[in-house]
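Incident review: delayed structure delivery

Summary: a single-chain prediction request sat in the queue longer than the usual turnaround. Root cause was a stuck worker, restarted by the on-call engineer. No data loss occurred. The affected request and its eventual output are reproduced below so the record is complete for anyone auditing the incident later.

Affected input:
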Amino acid sequence: MQPTYELHLRFDNNNPELVRYLASAGQKWYMVLPCPNQKRMALVHDNLAKAKAQRERAAQLIAELKDPLRTELLAMLKQHKMLEAVRRYQKVTGLQDFTLAVMVMNTIDPEHPLGNR
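Output delivered after worker restart:
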């Protein structure tokens, strides 16, 4: 059965959108689940591998983070200055990858909602 409608549910700004595909037949509604094909599965596996490599690189960068920079960054994060901390970290370390720098900040700040994951 082909879906005829898309239902987009947004719970709040912190969560991604949930999408459901629907189709009606007669007086009933059905949720249509997509069948993964070989190309899509390869994409999923590739993305999982990239995410794992990024987490491993972030862990390595955290292990290399020493004082006084670590203390300076923690002070910025405690003041809710995430962007400033990320930029400072990038400037001092030369790291170009913004997403990776954010991952490092999220991990070193134990009070951040995403910290210690």
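Verification: The chain has a mean pLDDT of 87.
Action items: add queue-age alerting; document worker restart procedure.
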